[in-house]
């Protein structure tokens, strides 16, 4: 071995970071209405009258940042869930977080028309939290540690259960609410301001601090729990931390953009093809790649049939669905 | 297991699933039918039959048609209404039979109706009612002209042609008067928003260039900023609002509890889009009356309310 594999892949990670930054900066200049660079930053016109500036700073930049935020968080959470469950087909939504979030959002859309600003986002975060607590309680009830098998089964069951409750809530709503609820489920990054991102940022920061610590334990866990234990990993603690931090990142991302599908599964796999399986590389690379990927998907979503727009979840699904199936067949 | 064996297995599983689906699909075609009734073979068989006897037990699944029936004096014959019916107040005493997406077939049948007013998209319900031999009146929301046409049709169907025709004429005359009155004044570029997440500019839906909301706006003396979008509704983003720069924003938000404080704070939300003319001039209006979102016999009244909002000087 002439070179350390970690060092060989570092340029790729750095390249992905540069790509992410470039995409986030470029995306606000692309759109249905053409805006000019000079007018966006013009100081001669007051901001309230500067249409180009408003489109850039009020409409498109928050969207690009939201897409990067959600894409990065979901992709990193996907990596952690796949490592935790030791299952390449795990997604950030496998353990019921998104179904819980969706239930919360549905309740807010149906009954919370008079709730204060951010009611839907807060309710979805609360729903995600509820799902996490229930799944965790079930998975640790009859085991000393966290049983990943029970975790998986409880998550899948909870997904189905919450989906049924969602149908029940929708049964009680009117047309417009059902319509909006459906639209929420497809994912929407038109945040129209920075407040939703800033509100979710602390959760994701905490989650990423945990991810940084988890990179090494996840590497060892991929050899199996016993092997990891024998090499000094506190398996129980690592699994618990992985579960809670990845759920936190997922819940925060979903509260901003809705349950956008497939990002959290296809990005980790693509990245592993590029940099290998070492979590110290896969985690940052997935974050950057996922951020850039979702920003591009959102640009497609808002320009393809302008002035109407396609749900961004539809774009990720059209790209992600076939990829997922290919992955399933290819799996050795 | 070798790779080849696994492939064979997955092929067998796949074929089994396909066969199973085919069998299930066919069996639903062979479903049980009531004697003497016919399965609907073409859309034509679903159209109302004008030679049918005058109905006296009507179930209406559409609030606007319920209103029409009451308005032409046939309210006593309405025995069942949808879960969304709230007007006139007399509907509160009628049996509820579900809504657009969840009509309760058994409850409808239990009312022994001799006419059911269905919405065009309720395919499954229409099929089942046809199989049960229940007469139907099929309706779908469209433009303003369709409202008075439907009114006349339902009048013919329930044997009250003269009353219905008179009411339809009245509505058309009132609309004509509003149109004449607003015809000479400036037509503000207006965006009609009928759904939005409270306190934010997210989840906004607006009226496109077709449908009764668009038509109401035109008669009331406005120009729809989305007149070029050939749809009844579209989702709008912050960018579209900025780019289309409406001079007036009409929010039609019924079915919620509104206080003056909430109306004021919801209007303030638009301030984020400061370059939009409607925001600068403060021409943002929240109309909370339910009648505006129901394309029924109160449509002239609703149009007048919109016209008064857009042109307060014309209607003093």
Largest sheet of chain A: none
CATH architecture of chain A: Orthogonal Bundle
- Taken together, the total number of domains of chain A comes to 1
Mean pLDDT of chain B: 85
Approximately how much helix is present in the residues of chain A? over 70%
Q: Judging by the overall fold, what is the CATH architecture of the largest domain in chain B?
A: 3-Layer(aba) Sandwich
Number of extended strands of chain B: 11
Order of helices and strands of chain B: HEHEEHEHEHHEEHEEHEHHEH
Kindly report the average pLDDT value of chain A.
89
Q: In the residues of chain B, how many domains can be counted?
A: 2
Query: Structural class per helix/strand content of chain B?
Result: alpha/beta
Quickly count the helices of chain B: 11
Order of helices and strands of chain A: HHHHHHHHHHHHH
CATH topology-level fold name of the largest domain in chain B: Rossmann fold
Radius of gyration of chain B: 24 Å
Q: Which runs of chain A of at least 5 residues are low in confidence (pLDDT < 50)?
A: none
Q: How much helix, percentage-wise, in residues of chain B? A: 40-55%
Oligomer classification: heterodimer
Written description of the protein model:
The complex is a heterodimer of chains A (332) and B (316). By secondary structure, chain A is mainly α. Chain A has one domain: ABC transporter involved in vitamin B12 uptake, BtuC, CATH 1.10.3470. Chain A is globular, with a radius of gyration of 20 Å. The mean pLDDT of chain A is 89. With 316 residues, chain B is α/β, with parallel strands linked by helices. Chain B folds into two domains: 117 residues, Nitrogenase molybdenum iron protein domain (Rossmann fold, 3-Layer(aba) Sandwich), CATH 3.40.50.1980; 132 residues, Nitrogenase molybdenum iron protein domain (Rossmann fold, 3-Layer(aba) Sandwich). Chain B has eleven helices and eleven strands. In chain B, strands 6, 7, 8, 9, 10 and 11 form a six-stranded mixed beta sheet that branches. A five-stranded parallel beta sheet of chain B has the order 3-2-1-4-5, sandwiched between helices. In chain B, helix 4 links the parallel strand 4 and strand 5. In chain B, helix 5 packs antiparallel against helix 6 and helix 6 packs parallel to helix 11. The chains are: A mainly alpha (332), B alpha/beta (316). At the A-B interface, helix 3 and helix 7 of A face strand 9 and helix 8 of B.
């Amino acid at each position: 071995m002439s070179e350390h594999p970690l060092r060989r892949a570092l340029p790729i990670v750095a390249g992905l970071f540069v790509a992410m930054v470039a995409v986030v900066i470029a995306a606000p200049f692309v759109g249905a209405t053409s805006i000019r660079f000079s007018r966006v930053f013009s100081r001669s016109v007051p901001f309230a009258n500067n249409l180009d500036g408003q489109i850039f700073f009020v409409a498109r930049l928050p969207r690009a940042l939201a897409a990067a935020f959600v894409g990065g968080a979901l992709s990193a959470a996907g990596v952690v869930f796949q490592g935790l469950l030791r299952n390449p087909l795990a997604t950030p939504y496998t353990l019921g977080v998104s179904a819980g979030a969706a239930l919360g959002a549905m309740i807010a859309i149906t009954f919370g028309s008079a709730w204060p600003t951010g009611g839907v986002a807060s309710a979805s975060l609360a729903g995600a939290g509820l799902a996490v607590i229930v799944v965790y309680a079930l998975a640790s009830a009859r085991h000393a540690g966290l049983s990943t098998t029970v975790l998986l089964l409880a998550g899948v069951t909870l997904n189905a259960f919450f989906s049924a409750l969602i149908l029940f809530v929708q049964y009680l709503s009117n047309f417009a609410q059902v319509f909006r609820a459906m639209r929420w489920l497809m994912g929407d990054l038109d945040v129209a301001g920075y407040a939703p991102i800033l509100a979710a940022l602390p959760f994701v920061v905490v989650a990423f601090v945990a991810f940084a610590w988890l990179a090494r334990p996840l590497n060892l866990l991929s050899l199996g729990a016993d092997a990891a234990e024998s090499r000094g990993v506190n398996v129980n603690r690592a699994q618990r931390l992985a579960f809670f931090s990845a759920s936190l990142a997922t819940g925060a991302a979903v509260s901003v953009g809705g349950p956008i599908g497939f990002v959290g599964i296809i990005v980790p796999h693509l990245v592993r093809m590029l940099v290998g399986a070492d979590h110290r590389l896969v985690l940052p690379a997935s974050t950057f790649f996922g951020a850039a990927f979702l920003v591009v998907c959102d640009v497609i979503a808002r320009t393809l049939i302008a002035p109407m727009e396609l749900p961004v979840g539809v774009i990720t699904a059209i790209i992600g669905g076939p990829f997922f199936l290919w992955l399933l067949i290819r799996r050795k | 297991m070798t790779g080849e064996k696994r492939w064979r297995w997955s092929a067998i599983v796949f074929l089994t699933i396909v066969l199973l689906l085919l069998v299930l699909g066919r069996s639903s075609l062979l479903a049980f039918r009531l004697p003497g009734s016919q399965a609907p073979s073409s859309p034509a068989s679903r159209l109302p039959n004008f030679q049918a006897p005058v109905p006296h037990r009507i179930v209406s699944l559409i609030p606007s048609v319920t209103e029409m029936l009451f308005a032409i004096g046939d309210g006593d014959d309405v025995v069942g209404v949808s879960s969304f019916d709230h007007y006139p107040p007399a509907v509160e005493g009628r049996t509820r039979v579900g809504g657009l997406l969840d009509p309760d077939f058994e409850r409808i049948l239990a009312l022994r109706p001799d006419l059911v007013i269905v919405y065009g998209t309720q395919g499954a319900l229409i099929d089942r009612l046809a199989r049960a031999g229940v007469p139907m009146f099929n309706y779908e929301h469209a433009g303003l002209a369709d409202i008075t046409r439907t009114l006349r049709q339902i009048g013919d169907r329930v044997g009250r042609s003269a009353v219905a025709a008179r009411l339809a004429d009245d509505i058309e005359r009132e609309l004509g008067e509003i149109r004449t009155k607003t015809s000479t004044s400036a037509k503000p570029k207006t965006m009609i928003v009928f759904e939005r997440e409270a306190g934010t500019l997210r989840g906004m839906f607006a009226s496109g260039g077709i449908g009764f909301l668009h038509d109401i706006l035109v008669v009331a003396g406005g120009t729809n900023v989305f007149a070029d979008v050939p749809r009844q509704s579209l989702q709008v983003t912050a960018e579209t609002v900025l780019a289309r720069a409406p001079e007036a924003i009409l929010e039609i938000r019924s079915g919620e509890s509104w206080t003056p404080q909430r109306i004021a704070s919801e209007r303030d939300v638009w301030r984020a889009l400061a370059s939009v003319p409607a925001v600068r001039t403060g021409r943002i209006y929240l109309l909370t009356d339910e009648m505006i979102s129901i394309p029924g016999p109160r449509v002239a009244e609703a149009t007048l309310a919109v016209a008064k909002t857009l042109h307060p000087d014309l209607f003093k």
